[in-house]
Design brief:
Blueprint lengths: L2 H6 E2 L2 E2 L3 H7 L10 E2 L5 E6 L5 E6 L6 E2 H16 L3 H8 L3 E3 L8 E7 L22 E7 L3 E8 H10 L6 H19 L5 E3 L2 E3 L9 E4 L8 H19 L6 E5 L4 H4 L11 H6 L4 E6 L8 E5 L5 E16 L4 E14 L9 E5 L1
Parallel strand pairs: 3-6, 7-17, 13-19, 14-15
Antiparallel strand pairs: 1-2, 3-4, 4-5, 8-9, 10-18, 11-12, 14-16, 16-19, 17-18
Helix pairs in contact: 3-6
Length: 355
């Protein structure tokens, strides 16, 4: 066991307030997740110096939650959150993530934007001198804030659940998870205020300054909506290509579009407007997002040089005691931050259409 963890556990008891415990454990959040093992004794898990997860016995400290209680609460939170994370889940499914181990101990991600170099030289004998250059690099920083929500149980509620043989009511955890999921979704979408820390700004898709924009036609009921929307989509694709971003793209649309996307593309057509647009070369899917407004459309190239999720911590529940142990405090939290990107010349594969 590392020295910091030995100092944290004195005479088999957890010492210090929650923040001190995290600091002593080098940001290992498992120190705030004590559990009752199958043998009835109390443990915490920790990451050893070799990188393995090990259980440490707490001889003079009584944990409140059984391991199954933690599992039940975590599963309820993740299930509730996933229902609202259509944008985040689409980026995950495309592999557009970058995970930072022990992200609790890091506040800034340092990255670089790389410039272009000149074209290659074509000659018959290779003697002609080519242009000797090298790419330019521009450093950039991204803050790594946490998203979190608190809830509590009394010691009596937990004891009643345990003695009655019924599972702990996870409603509070589920509601907190939904709120965090909504914040994550809005954060990535760009529906929250720009987050600023240490001179850096975090943008989402809708408020990224370098995004491409286009005015699209307001839909009006009738057979011409499909043709008009298709023309706008093709024009948005052309904008992305002109900015040297060639797809594939995913389209995110406001809920107001559903009434037009699911009707026939034209009179007596065998395809809906949605199916016709999905047949456009490079368009992989059309996803309706709860938090998009009006008739907004986003066309996003699915590549890490356009957007990726920085994951410092998946959604996790932490616990600590107050009021002499009579109140059990829980904090549900994650570190999921959008990194929306443009190249050295401020070109990007994000096209924002609005009426």
């Amino acid at each position: 066991m590392n020295t910091a963890l030995l100092n944290l556990i004195k005479n088999g008891s957890l010492t210090g307030d929650p923040a001190d415990r995290l600091l002593a454990a080098n940001g290992d959040i498992n120190v705030l997740r004590p559990f009752i093992g199958q043998d009835g004794r109390s443990y915490i898990s920790h990451v050893s110096q070799s990188g393995r997860v090990e259980n440490q016995l707490l001889e003079n400290t009584t944990a409140t939650m059984r391991k199954d209680d933690w599992k039940l609460m975590d599963e309820a939170a993740v299930k509730a959150a996933t229902q609202r994370l259509k944008l985040v889940n689409a980026l995950r499914a495309a592999g557009l993530t970058f995970t930072i181990p022990q992200g609790m101990g890091k506040t800034i991600l340092e990255t670089e934007t790389i410039g272009e170099i000149n074209d290659a030289t074509i000659s018959m004998d290779g003697i002609r001198e080519g242009i000797n250059d090298r790419p330019e690099f521009e450093p950039s920083s991204l803050a790594l804030p946490m998203t979190h929500k608190d809830f509590q149980f009394s010691a009596r509620q937990i004891l009643a659940s345990r003695n009655g043989g019924s599972p702990l009511d996870t409603t509070s955890a589920e509601m907190s998870a939904i709120r965090i999921a909504e914040s994550n979704e809005k954060f990535v979408l760009g529906r929250l205020a720009t987050y600023t820390y240490g001179g850096t700004n975090i943008y989402g898709l809708l408020n990224f300054p370098s995004r491409l924009t286009r005015t699209i036609t307001t839909p009006v009921g009738g057979a011409t909506v499909g043709a008009t929307l298709l023309a706008d989509v093709l024009a948005m694709r052309a904008q992305s290509v002109a900015a040297y971003h060639y797809g594939p793209w995913i389209m995110f649309v406001a809920p107001n579009w559903d009434q037009y996307l699911d009707v026939d593309a034209k009179a007596q057509s065998d395809r809906t407007v949605r199916e016709r647009i999905q047949a456009v070369n490079g368009i992989t899917d059309i996803v309706t997002l709860d938090f998009m407004q009006n008739y907004d459309i986003l066309m996003v190239q699915l590549s890490v040089d356009v957007i990726r999720l920085i994951i410092g911590m998946e959604m996790t529940t932490l616990q600590w005691d107050t009021l002499g142990g009579m109140q059990k405090n829980f904090k549900l939290m994650d570190i999921i931050v959008p990194q929306v990107r443009a190249d050295f010349n401020s070109r990007t594969g994000i096209v924002h259409g609005s009426v």
